[in-house]
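[step 3/7] inverse_fold.run input=structure_tokens len=210
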């Protein structure tokens, strides 16, 4: 039994993949850089600036640090405009039911996400009242696969990593969880990752593990 459960946000609690894709695609199109769903998949769990570096690596043009910051900012403005369309309906009933059941069992729940928009997303979807702590892109200096975001989440919960499970859909997130000493549980793409401690097909299966 684990005392705490730490959830990645994008791809675990809901999916904003399409919005990230649309925002990055518009930037890439303006720059004439090839960008498709396959490249977008590589951005999962990766920070905004690292995502930009992956996109720009498809181009031979050299961008200054100022240009990169401006591009990342432009992408974020477009992404946030798209996020405004989010409602509580973006979260599957199974996700809410699983969170409620875990809380009813006395588990402490946290979010551990690389996104600096985590709090906005939690608020728009009404998930903000479901968690005891939030650790996100605003309180870390190193992105997954570094364990910092999950170590902070455990710290915010007042628990040791060994007492917590981490649920992730990204390979980098599973690596981060393992590096931090957490039980790693993979869902989606990460369910097939050979380093994942446990794999689930849907979130409610968590109730059999933690
Ligand atoms: C992660 C997403 O949750 O957040 C990544 O999986 C994204 O695709 C990262 O790049 C950073 O998001 P934001 O909202 O800070 O630009
Ligand atoms: Mg994710």
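[step 3/7] decode complete -> sequence:
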């Amino acid at each position: 039994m684990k005392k705490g459960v730490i959830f990645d946000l994008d791809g675990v609690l809901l999916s904003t993949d399409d919005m990230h894709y649309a925002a990055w695609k518009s930037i890439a199109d303006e720059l004439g850089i090839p960008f498709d769903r396959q490249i977008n998949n590589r951005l999962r769990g990766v920070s905004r600036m690292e995502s930009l570096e992956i996109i720009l690596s498809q181009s031979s043009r050299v961008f200054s640090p100022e240009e990169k910051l401006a591009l990342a900012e432009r992408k974020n403005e477009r992404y946030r405009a798209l996020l405004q369309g989010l409602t509580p309906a973006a979260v599957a009933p199974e996700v809410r039911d699983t969170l409620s059941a875990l809380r009813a069992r006395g588990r402490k729940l946290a979010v551990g996400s690389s996104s600096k928009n985590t709090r906005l997303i939690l608020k728009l979807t009404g998930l903000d009242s479901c968690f005891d702590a939030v650790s996100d892109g605003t309180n870390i200096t190193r992105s997954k696969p570094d364990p910092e975001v999950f170590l902070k989440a455990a710290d915010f919960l007042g628990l040791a990593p060994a007492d917590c499970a981490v649920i992730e859909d990204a390979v980098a997130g599973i690596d981060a969880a393992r590096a931090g000493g957490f039980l790693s549980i993979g869902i989606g793409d990460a369910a097939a990752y050979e380093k994942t401690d446990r794999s689930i097909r849907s979130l409610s299966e968590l109730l059999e593990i933690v």
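[step 4/7] annotate
The pocket of 6-O-phosphono-beta-D-glucopyranose (ligand 1) is lined by residues 9-10, 20, 43-48, 51, 76, 113-117, 137 (CB under 6 Å).
The radius of gyration is 17 Å.
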